[in-house]
Each structure stands twice: as structure tokens, then as C-alpha cells.
Amino acid sequence: MSILTLFMVLGPVALVAGIAMMIIAIRSGVGTSPKATAMLIAGMMAAAFGLLLSAFAFTVQPVESAR
Question: Quick one: pLDDT at residue 26?
């Protein structure tokens, strides 16, 4: 399994998990509890990480091995 395949699998999983964390945090009241605020920040970071991994996997061309 190549590293780009791993990025194509891990990226969308992190993106969906981050969005789910943001939804849970927003429903539990962001301004009222520090836990919800931390969850919102962590969800945004996870979603951005997943989006970057996916974009990287789709745009980077695999390098040929050196001969």
C-alpha cells in the first residue's frame, strides 16, 4: 500500500470525524462550556487536516523510483 493510498483513506475519515465533532460541539453550546469550545477547535483542526491530506493525495503525482 502506497503512502498516497493511505492519505486517500485517512483524509476523508479525518474530515468526516472533524465535521462530526464540530456538530456535536455546536449542539452542546459552544460559549457555555470550555469542553464544547475545545471540541469545536479540535473538530476544525481535524477537518482541515483531513482536507489537506485528501488534497495532497489527489494533486501529488507519485515519483518514479530512482534507477
Answer: 92
Whether residue 57 contacts residue 1, with contact meaning beta carbons closer than 8 Å, is answered with no
Structure letter (DSSP) for residue 60: P
Q: Which residue has the cell 507519485?
A: 62
pTM for this prediction: 0.81
Alpha helices in the chain (DSSP H): 3-27, 34-59
Q: In this structure, which amino acid lies at residue 23? A: I
11: closest CA among 42, 43, 46? 46
Q: What is the rounded distance in angstroms from the CA atom of residue 2 to the CA atom of residue 36?
A: 37
Residue 67, SS3 per DSSP: coil
Q: CA 40, 43, 45: angle at the middle one, nearest 5?
A: 110
